[in-house]
Write a structure and sequence with these properties.
By secondary structure, the chain is of the alpha+beta class. The protein has a single domain, classed as Ribbon (Umud Fragment, subunit A), CATH 2.10.109.10. It is built from 5 helices and 11 strands; from the N terminus they run H-H-E-E-E-E-E-E-E-H-E-E-H-E-E-H. The N and C termini lie far apart (91 Å).
Length: 256
């Protein structure tokens, strides 16, 4: 019995044989993994393109024309579906949920260079009579409440020939047309034509907007900003301002 017990204690079990996969099978497994990975990557890319084209797109603010609402260095997510996204390669648009309303901030193709994107606030919609008197905006004869406006250089009252395009939309007849000498802070009243919008920057004294280059066509409107997802101080002179001068308080702020 002792010999048997010693024999059992000293015996060692033989290791189980490791299954051997032939090279053909290993290559087949690798091919399936690569195929699944490429399919997943392709689906993710298609989903990204659909979202970017028809739902949400990222834009950045290059200038201070919308301060205090939007700052240079703000990065925005823009809702493209709300007004109806344009179908690429065509002039057709998907049905929108609504049309731009007075007070909306919109992103649009700059009328003088459609390759550039501008962001401004809608002041007048089709059929509105818009004007400004000594810096006060009036729509359909009534002052417009604008708590979002920033004034840095009020009282500018110098005639600029760049405003002469307004004469084609001026209300008041031939007498008003002959005497019309618009300035930055005093102009109008102008009739907003069908399919057009009159837009102004919130930084009212430092904004190139509809006062200078005219109305925004409805087909040029790309969407409405939703939220600031990143922001940094573009005026900082650090080596990496986008990393060291982040405006943490603006991240995630909803745009109104």
């Amino acid at each position: 019995m002792h010999e048997l017990g010693a024999l059992r204690a000293g015996s060692s079990a033989q290791p189980a044989p490791v299954p051997f996969a032939p090279p053909e099978k290993r290559r087949s497994t690798l091919a399936r993994w690569f195929d699944n990975w490429m399919r997943s990557l392709g689906m993710a890319l298609v989903l990204f393109l659909i979202i970017r084209t028809f739902l949400i797109e990222a834009f950045q603010i290059p200038s201070g024309s919308m301060e205090r609402t939007l700052l240079a260095g703000d990065f925005l997510f823009v809702n493209k579906a709300v007004y109806g996204a344009q179908i690429p390669g065509t002039n057709a648009r998907l049905p929108g949920f609504e049309s731009p309303r007075r007070g909306d901030i919109i992103v649009f193709a700059y009328p003088k260079n459609p390759e550039l994107n501008y962001v401004k606030r809608v002041i007048g919609v089709p059929g509105d009579r818009v004007e400004m008197r000594a810096g006060e905006v009036r729509v359909n004869g009534k002052p417009l409440a604008e708590p979002y406006v920033q004034r840095v250089d009020p009282g500018h009252d110098v005639y600029d020939p760049e405003f002469n395009w307004q004469k084609d939309y001026l209300i008041g007849g031939a007498g008003a047309l002959r005497a019309y000498r618009p300035t930055r802070d005093t102009w109008g009243p102008l009739l907003v034509p069908p399919g057009k919008f009159f837009v102004l920057g919130d930084n009212r004294d430092n904004s190139a907007d509809s006062r200078y280059w005219g109305f925004v066509d409805a087909h040029a409107v790309k969407g409405r900003p939703l939220v600031v997802y990143f922001s940094y101080d573009r005026e900082a002179h650090d080596a990496l301002p986008w990393l060291t001068d982040i405006r943490w308080r603006r991240l995630g702020s909803v745009i109104h």
